[in-house]
Amino acid sequence: ENIFDRPRMAPKTPIKNEPIDLSKQKGCTPERNPITPVKIIDRPQPDPWTPTANLKILVSAASPDMRDREKKKELFRPIENSEQSDTPDSSQYDIVDDSTVDEFEKQRPSRKQKSLGLLCQKFLARYPNYPLSTEKTTISLDEVASILGVERRRIYDIVNVLESLHLVSRVAKNQYCWHGRHNLSQTLKMLQEAGELQYGELMTSQHKEQDLEYKFGERKKETIPDSQDRPLLDFSEPDCTSASANSRKDKSLRIMSQKFVMLFLVSKTKIVTLDIAAKILIEETQDTVDHSKFKTKVRRLYDIANVLTSLGLIKKVHVTEERGRKPAFKWIGPGEFPGKTDKLRGHSPTSDPLPGAQRGACAQYQTSATGKQRFTRHASFNSAQPCEATRRKVSSEPNSPRQERQDENCSKMINLAAVCRQKIEEDTGNKACDTETILNSAKNSNITLPFSLLPVPGDSDFCVNPLPQAVFPVVQADVPSFSLPTGISSQASHTSTPAASKTENGKPTLVPSQPFLCFPSSSLFMLCGGLQENNLSEPLPTAGDLGKRSAQAQAAVPPAVCQKRSSCKCSSPSAPVDDEEPAAKKQTLEHSDLPLSLVVPKSPSESPKAESSPGSGCSSAVHLETNNHDHAGPAVPEAANKESIKPLDCQEQEKQSQNKDPDEPSPGNEHMSKENANQPFQPQYLYVQPPPGLSSFNFLFSANQAPGAINLAANQLPSLSVPCVMVPSAALASFPLVCSPSFSSPLSPVPDGSFSAAAATNFSMSSLASTTPVFISTTAVVTPKVSPAPSVDSQQPAHPALHLSPVLTRSCSAVQLDSPVCMGHPVTLLKLQQPSSAPLTPKSIRPAHHEAFFKTPGSLGDPVAWKKNEGSQTRNASSVQRRLEISSTSPD
DNA sequence: CACTCCCGCCAATTA
DNA sequence: TAATTGGCGGGAGTG
């Protein structure tokens, strides 16, 4: 009888469930099956039926450890299956009825519930996609395993895959460091490049290869020869590889994971069938490919695929081929990485220019970003890169079995890098200043103050990915633009991505008279230079003021510098992107008083192309250019921005503004000046668009009064998740930042999450598309004007401040809005604001996001010591300076 | 039956 | 030597 019952009760699966239950209620088992007495009683284990179960029991009997584990599992389980909660009860009940079966089912975790994918999701849920660079999250395997209620073995499966993508790194035994997705884009880019080398043609050419085998063989040959798989693979684990790596590691799940991802990145169709992948990945034994091996490989691929699916990088699909339908996976992660090699290369060049020290820093920085020794590989990939040496060094350094340590160092590295950048920027800034001055003089003395926005590459990642190219071009473009603001602007607008268009739409509202700067969004922007307040009649002075403020806000720019020139130059993005943003936010918060105005002179508009230039108004733009050129390398990395930057709106706006102001034939500068002069308060905005596709954010800065020149450094850095930020410098103090939702377009290669800022995290999470706009206002005020303007009157120039919801602004300073509202266009933003600032944020924002958003920003801003410091100091020293100081101290 | 993929043994590595 | 990692493949669950 007993037997009979049981089967019913706990048909097959029960086993696992039972353990759980058992754990809870060991006593229960017996109860449950009073009938079955024996087995149950004897063993706590539930699994009796399956052979394994029996085995297990035996084992457990034999080893206490096992039992313990089981217990633990059980204990944990509850977490997993909250649903099961009733299990015990049900089980008991079950005893009686058949109904039990159902319950069992309910109870039973069911295989799916235990799937690696689900487990991975739980795992991922525990960590932020874009953790603040500052905070290191360590993962304890034991802890996680227990929390998730699974054996450690499963955690290894997850962690190994995550590690292959550099989302985590091993720090020590049982200890992993969570990096989040900041580097993901870079990693993917690398993999893509590597994949192209290895699998290149194959994949592309043969999307379909049905004849796996046949082709397979060929491929193998090809692949193998091209690059040693190892190397590529190693890339995850660098050089050291050799020794340890060999036997065991070669097959490692990590490597397989990377290769698997490579296949997707290389594949045109972005769809890879398991069998093909398995064949390709078997390479080694190419010919031998025995069935068993194949099977094993496929199993492993499932494991990997589950994790990747959890990461939102791929999804399961079915491909129907001649044979029939085959399981396959489609890449749904970030699309192409535009720059790819080019970017890298471009980047490197930029880096070259940097001072040796800096360069070194950069290299390190990169490494750190990468998180590991991959550099070696990188080097290999990009032979072109000048930095190889440094990288190698770096890579070599960490011989440690694992790279983790490197990772640890990464943060340091990053800091150093940041510092270096700042320095560089400063230098450049100076240069820039010069140029600016010149320009200004030429154009109009009026030119707004330079205020520079620098995107700061927050993370090494950024560095890695640098999009220098864009930057340069941009810069140049900018220059011309100066001269021809209008035209430029128009062009810029065109160039600008869709987003730009959006902005454009909004523009009118936004900037009737105000000029805009569009930047490609880099993750971070630093504002350098003082902002000028329009109020301040004089640009310069104002600029100085602004600069201070701005500087504070961004911290990047030293106060002095901040002043027009300096400010311009300051562009160096010392701080990582994250920081910057936060800084900005902080600024806003802290300095709310001060209006942070970005002045985007016309020049910005011109700069359209050169996104980088964008920031600076005329002058600033110039700076940028100069800077970029000169410095190019380092700071520029942002180059990405350059391109991304689309003057679009700005231009248009500028134009408009210009139009308004009849005078200026001249470029944006004029606008600036005019605006400044004419419209003391008219807000000027800087709009930074993120590279298309990515989550980068755009920032809009308006500086009504203050026409400080703004320099934007475009960071390549990964864009923030936030699409756009508008910051109006209200007349004064407050600057609100509004982030418009980025487009989802994943265009840019930019990594999704590149953005370090926490804020990004939330958004980015989804992937690129995060549309959520972020609204940041320091104090509350955003420029009212702005808000209204966009939607309605762009024209209204001067509303000073929008009132952001005080709460938001103050507290957070930044608020996210759902994209809907803000979504793309500044206009929307404006609208939002109008609604009154207050409401806006809240509504749009999703709770979660809000939190996250706030946190990040807040964390950034608030938390950030330096920022705070700034706040206090702010005026005295620019944020930049502070940063420098800080950085200098620390690094030094 | 094919597809998935969980489970956990046990060897390789590491501490 | 003990503990940690992680390759590997049996075989269970699912459709």
TrEMBL record:
Q: In the record, which residues are listed under signal peptide?
A: none
Region Disordered: what ranges? 1-94, 224-243, 330-360, 378-409, 487-507, 565-676, 856-892
One GO BP annotation is: sprouting angiogenesis
Q: Where is the composition biased (Low complexity)?
A: 595-617
One Pfam family from the record: WHD_E2F_TDP
GO CC term, one of those recorded: RNA polymerase II transcription regulator complex
SUPFAM superfamilies the record matches: Winged helix' DNA-binding domain (SSF46785)
Q: What keywords tag this UniProt record?
A: Activator, Cell cycle, DNA-binding, Nucleus, Repressor, Transcription, Transcription regulation
Q: Name its cellular compartments.
A: Nucleus
Q: Name one GO molecular function term.
A: DNA-binding transcription factor activity, RNA polymerase II-specific
- Residue ranges the record marks as coiled coil: none
User: Which intervals hold domain E2F/DP family winged-helix DNA-binding?
Assistant: 111-180, 248-333
Q: Where is the composition biased (Basic and acidic residues)?
A: 65-77, 582-593, 652-663
Q: Which SMART domains match?
A: E2F_TDP (SM01372)
**Compositionally biased, Polar residues: which spans?**
81-93, 487-503, 565-574, 871-892
Q: Which domain of life is it from?
A: Eukaryota
- Which PANTHER family does the protein's record reference? TRANSCRIPTION FACTOR E2F (PTHR12081), TRANSCRIPTION FACTOR E2F7 (PTHR12081:SF25)
Task: Give the family this protein belongs to, as stated in its UniProt record.
Answer: Belongs to the E2F/DP family.
The name on file for this protein is Transcription factor E2F7
Its gene name is E2f7
